[in-house]
Design brief:
The complex is a heterodimer of chains A (405) and B (164). Chain A is an alpha+beta fold and 405 residues long. Helices cover 59% and strands 6% of the residues of chain A. Chain A has helices at 26-34, 60-63, 107-116, 118-126, 128-134, 137-145, 148-156, 167-178, 180-198, 203-222, 235-242, 262-275, 288-293, 295-306, 308-314, 317-329, 331-340, 342-346, 348-366, 368-375, 377-396, 398-404, and strands spanning 5-10, 15-20, 45-49, 52-53, 69-75. Chain A has a 5-stranded mixed β-sheet with strand order 2-1-5-3-4, covered by helices on one side. The longest helix of chain A is centred in the middle third of the chain and has 20 residues, at 203-222. Chain A is extended and about 85 Å long. Chain B has a single domain, classed as Ubiquitin Conjugating Enzyme (Roll). Chain B contains 4 helices and 4 strands, in the order αββββααα. Chain B has helices at residues 3-17, 115-127, 137-145, 147-163, and strands spanning 23-27, 35-41, 52-58, 69-72. Chain B has a 4-stranded antiparallel β-sheet with strand order 1-2-3-4. In chain B, helix 3 crosses helix 4. The radius of gyration of chain B is 16 Å and the shape is globular. The N and C termini of chain B lie far apart (36 Å). Classes of the chains: A alpha+beta (405), B alpha+beta (164). The A-B interface holds A 10, 12, 46, 48-53, 64, 66, 68-72, 74, 76-77, 181, 256-258, 263-264, 267-268, 270-271, 274-275 and B 16-19, 21-22, 24-28, 36-39, 41, 44-45, 49-50, 52, 54, 151-152, 155-156, 158-159, 162.
């Protein structure tokens, strides 16, 4: 056996070096790389050398790749598999209500699938209506304080409460949800700041105090899996706490390159969305998708819908007007919401019906009596009860529900 | 041996050992040092991300006095790449004064340029198209007026380049 040669495989963000026999095939090189590249399958790896994408059966000596040579490595994003939303699959027959109501039984799964799809999430977040909602600190406060998970966290860590009183932090958080890149950039800045601090005499102690007072409780509160932001802490985040107290000599992550998976996933997600027109398929993106998918986040959505006060503010005339305007000016948004909802996907008739009825619905929303009725907390309560009832029916007696539909 | 082929051999050997981010270069035909095959990796965070675009670099015998020609053989939709795939950037234009007065002499070909600097310009062109002198007027127009369609068209090219 001849001596192993060292080969560097360079991605836009990182370099992996492997030692391999000079006569090895590209396939064997990929196997070696797989042990180093996180979250990738062999078919995603693409080795490029001298202007060519290398084929699996070619050997390194054929290609004249010698010791110390560098090849390009591109980790393609996974082909977007369609996640079967657990909620929708077994409960097919959604009752077709006379006037499909976006806040009716169909709304919940739609919200959830929306959360699965970062592109759509961004669209929603960019929507003027949502922005006006989010820039209303009062509204956000009610929404957060009435969330049981958040309450729990607040009880344990009262110092976090000031977040609620600071609209700029809120805005930043929302911005973060919208923009995973920004989240990474923020993390990077924090890392840099930390490193600088460590260099100052006494800085270590200050950091330790900071960690004990703030970061530890925050991180602990994520362990329950109840925290909507828990899954944002990906691999890199996880060893952050393990590393505490050690000097951080690693290079900072390159903010412009896609870090293994996340960035690339998002981008091809966009590309594949483009291909199907505006009809997005939920594209799983590690990190963001995980967070939005977490039980905490979906319960936040659910609770947003079931809180009468919240519903009332949702239905305030001002809100209704903006909503109407956005829906009218941007029918494709509505279309993609309908298309992406599992209920819609599973039942083309229903989604067609919803699309057809859209103008009617808009008209309905212009009717002042209707708006008044919707603002009535008791009406909202009644809606909630209907929704609850339907969901009980769905779990307890799906056959019955099918008959009704 | 001619100066041009020596220089190209040197650049090729260097790029083989330590390639530069964003592209990979080799010879299209091992016996012809003047014809290079280049694979441009779609730059991250652009519409071209995920694509592998093949191109041919054609060097003249009087390189580096005169610039090479670069032509994409993969389909690529970009304002500064004409529909035949020819790349239109100022540093690939023959040295001297621009007869139309658009480009300053220092923006045009200079013998100090190498394959690396050319490709880096091409990659930055993919990131930031230059609308002032579009080689593909339709692409430039589409990018300005109908960005959604433009994105779709680029995404098609990216997908196609992955299958090649």
């Amino acid at each position: 056996m001849t001596d192993l040669i060292k080969i560097n495989a360079k991605t836009p963000t990182a370099t992996y070096d492997v030692e391999i026999a000079p006569g090895a095939t590209v396939s064997e090189l990929k196997d070696q790389l797989l042990t180093k590249v996180a979250n990738a399958t062999k078919s995603q790896l693409c080795v490029i050398y001298t202007g060519k994408i290398l084929k699996d059966e070619e050997t390194l000596d054929q290609l004249k790749i010698g010791d110390g040579y560098t090849v390009h490595l591109v980790v393609r994003s996974a082909a977007a598999p369609r996640p079967a939303p657990a909620a929708a699959a077994p409960t097919q027959p959604t009752p077709q209500q006379p006037t499909p109501n976006i806040f009716g039984a169909g709304a919940m799964p739609s919200a959830q699938s929306m959360m699965n799809n970062p592109e759509m999430m961004r669209q929603v977040m960019d929507n003027p209506m949502v922005q006006s909602m989010l820039s209303n600190p009062e509204f956000m406060r009610t929404m957060l304080t009435s969330n049981p998970q958040f309450q729990q966290m607040l009880e344990r860590n009262p110092e976090v409460g000031h977040i609620l009183n600071d609209p700029s932090i809120m805005r930043q958080t929302m911005e973060m949800i919208r923009n995973p890149n920004m989240f990474q950039e923020m993390m990077r800045n924090h890392d840099l700041a930390m490193r600088n601090l460590q260099g100052i005499p006494g800085g270590e102690a200050a950091l330790e105090r900071l960690y004990n007072d703030v970061q530890a409780p925050l991180l602990n509160s994520t362990t329950g899996g109840n925290n909507p932001f828990a899954s944002l802490r990906n691999e890199a985040g996880r060893d952050r706490s393990d590393r505490a107290g050690q000097e951080n000599s690693e290079a900072l992550p390159n903010p412009w390159g896609p870090p293994a998976g996340a960035g690339a996933g998002a981008a091809t997600g966009t590309a594949s969305n483009e291909s199907v027109g505006n009809n997005q398929q939920p594209t799983p993106v590690p990190g963001l998708g995980g967070m939005l998918n977490s039980p905490g986040m979906s319960s936040l959505m659910q609770q947003m819908m079931s809180n009468p006060e919240m519903t009332r503010s949702l239905f305030s005339p001002e809100m209704m007007r903006t909503m109407r305007e956005t829906m009218r000016s941007n029918p494709s948004l509505m279309d993609s919401i309908i298309g992406a909802s599992p209920a819609g996907q599973a039942n083309p008739q229903l989604s067609n019906l919803m699309r057809q009825r859209l103008p009617e619905m808009l008209e309905m929303m212009e009717n002042p009596e209707m708006i008044q009725a919707m603002q009535n907390p008791r009406v909202a309560e009644a809606f909630r009860q209907i929704q609850e009832g339907v969901s009980i029916l769905r779990t307890e007696a799906p056959q019955l529900l099918g008959m009704m539909g | 041996m001619e100066q041009s082929s020596l220089l190209l051999k040197k650049q090729l050997a260097e790029l083989r050992r330590v390639p530069v981010d964003g592209f990979s270069a080799g010879l299209a035909d091992d016996n012809d040092i003047y014809k290079w095959e280049v694979l441009v990796i779609g730059p991250p965070d652009t519409l071209y991300e995920g694509g592998f675009f093949k191109a041919i670099l054609d060097f003249p015998r009087d390189y580096p006095q005169k610039p090479p020609k670069m032509k994409f053989t993969s389909e690529i939709w970009h304002p500064n790449i004409d529909k035949e795939g020819n790349v239109c950037i100022s540093i690939l234009h023959d040295p001297g004064d621009d007869k139309w007065g658009y480009e300053r002499p220092e923006e045009r070909w200079l013998p100090v340029h190498t394959v690396e600097t050319i490709l880096l310009s091409v990659i930055s062109m993919l990131t930031d198209p230059n609308f002032e002198s579009p080689a593909n007027v339709d692409a430039a127009k589409m990018q300005r007026e109908n960005y959604t369609d433009f994105k779709k068209k680029v995404a098609q090219c990216v997908r196609k380049s992955q299958e090649e």
